Amino acid sequence: MIRREFLVRALSVAAASLFGRHALAQDAAHGMHDMSGMQGMSDMPGMPGMAQGRTPGAAALAAPDALPSGAPLAALRTLVNESREAGVFRATLVAQPAQHTLMPGHPTTFWQYGQAGDHPDTAAMQGQVVGPLIDVREGDTVEIRFVNRLPQASTIHWHGLPVPPDQDGNPSDPVAPGASRIYRFTLPPGSAGTYWYHPHPHMMSAEQVFRGLAGPIVVRAAVDPLAGWPERHLFFSDLKLASDGTIAPNDMMDWMNGREGQFVLVNGARRPLIVMAADERWRVWNACNARYLRLSLGKGRTFAQVGTDGGLLQQAREGLTELLLAPGERAELIVRSVGGTREPEGQPQSGESAQPDRSATSAQSARAILSAEVYDRRKMAMSHGSLPPDSAHPLADVQFEPRTPNAPGRAVAIPTTLREISPLGAPVSQKSVVFSERMDMAAMHRPGASRNGMPAGMTFMINGASFDPRRITLTSRRGEVERWSIENRTDMDHPFHLHGTQFQILEREQEGVVTPEPYLAWRDTVNVQPGETVRIATMQNQAGERMFHCHILEHEDLGMMGMLKVI
Ligand code: C2O
Ligand code: CU
Ligand code: CU
């Protein structure tokens, strides 16, 4: 099922030999690990570091263990509310360069969100690269002054939140370097959930995020059935560092497949230690540019999923051993402090009733590794075919230290109903979104053929066209339920994301087999596999322009984005 369009036309001699050599190297080495055939590319515009350190002059990457690990997981810092009025959250976010020393002896200049009064030299900015947590409630009016101290234009996009289109940091609303603006919106009832914010400037989102600009948002409900559970936040981001501590630029493979660095950070640190004294509610964010996180706590260790992007599920999904989190996605989990082995489910504990047999639990190791398991998102190679699957990547160590190790009979059951989710209802119109891609090898290798440091010749499209800020891709009427079908006609996974609202997955179709989504959930991001069609129900409530795109940010910047006009 090779549907990639490779327009190998009028190859130059250099490109032809490059293509040929690489095809050979791939047969021999089965993948991109042998980059010897790629050396000619280091001369290409916009492809620094192409040969991953093997080309003279290109920056070598730091070793995968060059960052220390094992420090206790840091809590996220919180954005301070400057308002004294009830129901108003007012704060300042400053985007600016800030230096952190993650690799001993080699400071890195990140781009980072800080608070009013933060200065790059102050301790506050030294603490964490992750932007401060915006912790707000349904009904709050949020007013955030954004100060852009970056050398580029930027915006803040409130990923997943139903904010007015002119407050949503669209690429058409840039804030110039040195300028500022206020974003203002009110969080409606029912919007409780786990969101995030990140820049969304035209063709520069990938770079601004990989340099460090992204932060978490939690919107709390007035009534939250899980309010009593200790909450833990794991904000996953990706980092690709050169051996001198600088943030490596994107190479051609990063543009083609989405950038994955050698490090995954959790709350800004590599492989931290999580010590669990009680059962916990985890909120997890995949803020990586392109890395898929197939989360697992290891063999036999289960957890429950209780929420998606847009808040709690109706019923917990118990007994999971893994959960795939595509770039941009979030989830809420319940992780048990004792073993996490399969237990009788859904039985509310009454009084002092003893838990059944705990012997299986005591035999369990008190440690686990939270890891991203092997996942094959069908990354492209430089010739026909795919790269091998991503290998497993440890994210954090977890140490279970329940406070009452010998009498754990009080495990609190997850409430049977977390909240009511009603189906959006019968759609009144249909929309079709088709992902496609085209690789023009000749254009890729033509000297001088790059724009904004992006390689030419790689085209990622929606409905047959790359993003054009002057063109409206689709039009919707506000208040109308629509059925969107999102079809992936490429050979690689792409996470679809829609701004301004949440949606419900109806069904997924693969090779003619239709699988209805087994549970109701609110999402704003959904992975679409090669050859798959995902059908969703969604509704926009405010008139204006909304974006929808692949959340592999390199693909988004390369044009896999469309504009929805809501009338
Ligand atoms: Cu998280 Cu349009 O983005
Ligand atoms: Cu978004
Ligand atoms: Cu994509």
UniProtKB/TrEMBL annotation:
Molecular-function GO term, any one: oxidoreductase activity
Name of protein: Bilirubin oxidase
Subcellular location(s) per record: Periplasm
Signal peptide: 1-25
Coarse class of the protein's main subcellular location: periplasm
SUPFAM superfamilies named in the record: Cupredoxins
Pfam families xref list: Cu-oxidase_2 (PF07731), Cu-oxidase_3 (PF07732)
Annotated region (Disordered), positions in chain: 338-366
Keywords in alphabetical order: Metal-binding, Oxidoreductase, Signal
One CC-aspect GO term: periplasmic space
Residue ranges constituting the Plastocyanin-like domain according to the UniProt record: 121-221, 455-566
Species whose genome carries this gene: Paraburkholderia phenazinium
InterPro entries from the UniProt entry: Cu-oxidase-like_N, Cu-oxidase_C, Cu-oxidase_fam, Cu_oxidase_Cu_BS, Cupredoxin
Skewed-composition ranges (Polar residues): 347-365
